[in-house]
Design a protein that fits this description.
Length: 291
């Protein structure tokens, strides 16, 4: 069954490939974007583009008009407000499905961390609404690794007790979300998305940097050092808090159900890196990246 799906956060790391995969599966995809021009450059004629922001109720209403489903992949500062608007407006519409990107560590015990509290409130709003929905709880996506590389330097932050993380590729996640839209069994479920292998963030970064940026200098920082720099420069604050959080709680969730229903996200870190390093025979990897 094809749907007209509104994707919120379609220009983001996880939202972009979801919008593309849904369109490739035959769905009509509409995106709400702050910059319609940027979205049109990004997607071309493959999707419908509506200018607006996800926290504006009237703009959400306009974007939802005629849509059968909504996929929400937004940052913490806007996702709860957007979810609340959507469930309020759903009563007057004909939404058949909402899919929402939560996180692997979201549980009541971790509510003390502000990002977890936001996601729990969003999930609670969806449950109370009665709108058919699927909640995806992914761990760390491989596409965050380039964020630790700036200019000619790479930063590796080492926490006190780095947990193993099952990094996944954004394309695998997008395929799983698109598959869920074709399977009614996914409604009403929280599905954990973990990649095929466990690796700590520092080791994942070292592997990525060695392959994609071998000429870069690597700055190794202990977590307390990164926190001090964040306090003084107002940079890296979010990532240091996130690393500290995972040091404390680790990676949660069992991906078995998601893997059975939607297929295993099989791309390994090495395989993902190969898609980003255009290596010709006899040449070494260099620092350029494919988008």
């Amino acid at each position: 069954m094809s749907n007209r799906v509104l994707v919120l956060g379609a220009t983001g790391t996880l939202g972009n490939p979801v919008a593309r995969h849904l369109a490739e599966r035959g769905h009509t995809v509409r995106v709400l974007a702050r910059s319609a021009e940027k979205a049109r450059r990004m997607f071309g004629p493959a999707v419908e583009v509506v200018a607006g922001i996800a926290v504006d109720r009237d703009q959400i209403r306009r974007a939802m008009k005629g849509c059968d489903a909504v996929h929400i992949s937004l940052p913490p500062e806007s996702e709860f407000v957007a979810v609340r608007h959507i469930v309020d407006l759903a009563a007057a519409g004909k939404l058949h499905r909402v899919s929402y990107v939560s996180a692997t560590s979201v549980c009541e015990e971790n509510r003390w961390f502000e990002i977890i509290d936001v996601k729990l409130r969003a999930e609670e709003a969806l449950r109370r609404s009665g709108v058919p929905h699927t909640v995806f709880c992914p761990t760390w996506v491989m596409e965050v690794l380039p964020n630790f590389v700036k200019r000619n330097r790479a930063v590796v932050i080492v926490g006190r007790n780095p947990p193993g993380l099952h990094f996944f590729a954004a394309a695998d996640f997008a395929r799983m979300v698109a598959t869920a839209y074709e399977d009614e069994r996914t409604l009403g479920r929280r599905l954990y998305v973990h990649g095929p292998e466990s690796i700590t963030l520092p080791n994942a970064l070292r592997t990525f940097i060695a392959a994609c940026h071998p000429q870069h200098k690597i700055m190794h920082l202990k977590l307390w050092q990164a926190r001090l720099i964040a306090r003084l420069t107002r940079q890296m604050d979010f990532v240091t808090r996130l690393i500290g959080f995972f040091d404390r709680v680790g990676e949660l969730g069992d991906p078995t159900e998601a893997n059975v229903l939607l297929g295993v996200p099989a791309t390994t870190l090495r395989e993902w890196i190969e898609t980003r390093t255009p290596i010709r025979e006899g040449e070494e990897a260099h620092g350029e990246q494919r988008s």
